[in-house]
Amino acid sequence: MVVLDPAVQAQFSAGPGYLNTATVGLPPKMAVEDLRQSVAEWEAGQLDPASFDKAVERSVSAFARIVRTQSTSVGIVGQVSIVSGLVASCLPDGARVLCAEEDFTSVLFPFLADPRLDVRLVPLDRILDSIGADTDLVAVSAVQSADGRVLDLDRLADIAAETNTRTYVDITQAAGWLPLDVDRFDVTACAAYKWLCAARGSGFLTVSPSADWLVPKYAGWYSGEDPWQSIYGPPLDRKSTRLNSSHTDISRMPSSA
Questions:
Q1: Count of domains forming the chain
Q2: The domain spanning residue 189 has which CATH number?
Q3: CA-to-CA distance for 202 and 87, rounded, in angstroms?
Q4: Domain interval for residue 142
Q5: pLDDT band (50, 70, 90) for residue 13
Q6: I want to staple 106 with a disulfide (CB 3.0 to 4.6 A). Which of 47, 81, 93, 204 is the partner?
Q7: How many Cβ atoms sit within 10 Å of the Cβ of residue 166?
């Protein structure tokens, strides 16, 4: 049995027996205090938007350590479906996408909604064996939110490398407890309000340096190399565009993007 450090335990106020982190993770006291302070400053008209930059940087750095990648490969997102939609939109017409038929709809719907794509749905227990040379992308969750089934991520990465198949993995139900090596996948997405104990509306994506097919189509003002100095007007420096798909920080997309 894993026993948490008492200092960590002291950060959580819920009574014994809370077992619903897979739906909503509990916030640590320090996060609640910071949130209350921000709301108070907002209410008083004293909120400094630039003050959030350091929190973003710390969060990105911490997430990078958890999923074993570099901070420059991590971006911030509001929800998984935004990343799913971005990935779908960057695929060529007629691309063949393989998905698990019982997967979470934030992974499935953006691909199913794109009439350009040829989406094939198979049971999760057959998805790895269904990857072939004719598969352009596999989009799947690392851990199923419905029943906790864990995908063999090592085998997925190996098969994808052998067949030259792009990979998109939702790690929402995995990040924070399952060891991950996200650089083995082209793109991953993670809603942070579960095992990472963050607030709803916060999340991350990672982009492998080799995923030069992903274009920062949703690049927002926070995508600039120095966001507060590049709010208005061109140019967009694609070589330094930070990982921001919408306010979806896509930090430093590959120069070919």
A1: 1
A2: 3.40.640.10
A3: 19
A4: 55-229
A5: confident
A6: 81
A7: 23
Alpha-carbon dihedral sign for residues 173, 177, 181, 182 = positive
Tokens representing 31 are 């996060």
CB 169 within 8 Å of CB 185: yes
CA distances from 52 to 55, 244, 252 (A): 5, 16, 20
- 113 contact partners, CB below 8 Å, separation of at least 6: 88
Please tell me the predicted confidence (pLDDT) of residue 242. 55
CB 245, CB 218: distance < 8 Å: yes
Q: Are 46 and 39 in contact (CB under 8 A)?
A: no
Beta strands in 5-129 (DSSP E): 74-77, 96-100, 118-122
**Are 175 and 66 a contacting pair, CB within 8 Å?**
yes
Closest CA to 200 of 35, 8, 10, 54: 35
Confidence of residue 176 (pLDDT cuts 50, 70, 90): very high
The answer to whether residue 167 is domain-embedded is: yes
**102 belongs to a structural domain:** yes
Q: pTM to 2 decimals?
A: 0.91
Write out pLDDT tens, residues 207-245.
999 999 999 888 888 888 788 988 898 887 665 555 544
User: 207 has which bridge partners?
Assistant: 187
The H or E element that residue 82 is part of is helix 80-89
CB 188 within 8 A of CB 164: no
